[in-house]
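quick one if you have a minute, typing this from the bus. below you get a single protein, a line of residues and a line of whole numbers that encode the local backbone shape. could you go over both lines and see whether the tokens make sense for that sequence. anything you notice is useful, everything is just below.
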Amino acid sequence: MAPMFSTRLAFADVPNALSKAKAKRLSANLPLLDMSDANPASAGFGWSVAELGSFIRKEGLQRQEPDPRGLAATRAAIADYYSARGVRVSADRLFLSASTSEGYSWLFKLLCNPGDEVLVPEPAYPLLEVLAALEGVTLRPYKLTQLAGEWVIDPGQLKVGGRTKAIVCINPSNPTGAFVGRRDRDLLRNFALKHSLGIICDEVFLDYPAEGTVSPGTWVDETQVALYVLSGLSKVAVAPQLKAGWIVVAGPANHAAESCRRLEHIADAFLSVSTAAQLALPDLIRRAEPLRASLRARVAQNEAALKAWVVASGHPCSVLPRPAGWMGILALPTGVSEERLTFNALDEGIWAHPGYFYGMPATTGYLILSLLLDPAQFSEGLKGLDRALRRS
């Protein structure tokens, strides 16, 4: 008799119809332009082999220094990263992980027992569903709503159950690019204090504000409520291949100290960040801004092209404001089904994500598009979407 599998992987049992259609097209070796591809490397952004080689120190390949929090010099470099943004962070409150995803899993372990509940924003990137399922944690969405063109928390959506332990916010969000501003920080802080919740704040896209946007900045300086900030090299230094992220423990001193004590036990069980990546991190962070700037310029260029296409095409679409990040949200004409349009786009050799993948409001149809693509490819993709819209 075969062994029974964990129910944690139930989410992977049934692929959706769109994913099946995409797989069928690829298996038939038909061309497909992926307009959802948000990987900077796919768009030509990243470090050269020579540059990365200069950052990987020989001693990092010859030895391991198993510190649960990460090497002191590496944590000091991350503290300097925040200092350059006008915020002081103690290196003793920093923990290195292999990725932001691993950071989430550690914090779910820290704050939740199996079966406990975490509040998460919607719309948002769907990865949290997978991470929570793998930790045996239940997610309860709270809706973000558009107010005067900005995505903000609907206070009526913030509700706790008997097993609610934490609340996630994303600053700025993916795909909306919305920052967690002062109004929502006050709302989350007061709500978390009232219900004894920890706040997990994901800030991986913090360095990618749109031109003209005033960012509220990082939330690592919180002192009143237990708060954990996530970030990492994947976005900060456009170096996902080096697998290094971090957790900043913020909040009241006593609670932060106890959080750090417990996180040390979790981190020590994995020791997942290689010494080579830790030694490379300081140089990568110090030299990353030109690469981030070129990426922001590409995103702005494609966003302008998307807006110009909307005007020229005559389709009654609109492009939602993008405070930050590198995704564009195309609001579809009234009556156009996201799913039908996505299937039609597949027929045209174009793959894009429908809004419901991210929990976008059902009152309007949306397509979520990566603004990282090579501009020529992005232009070709828009031509395919134009044909698909005319059939939808």
Remarks:
- The mean pLDDT is 94.
- The first strand starts at residue 33 and ends at 34.
- DSSP finds 13 helices and 14 strands in the chain.
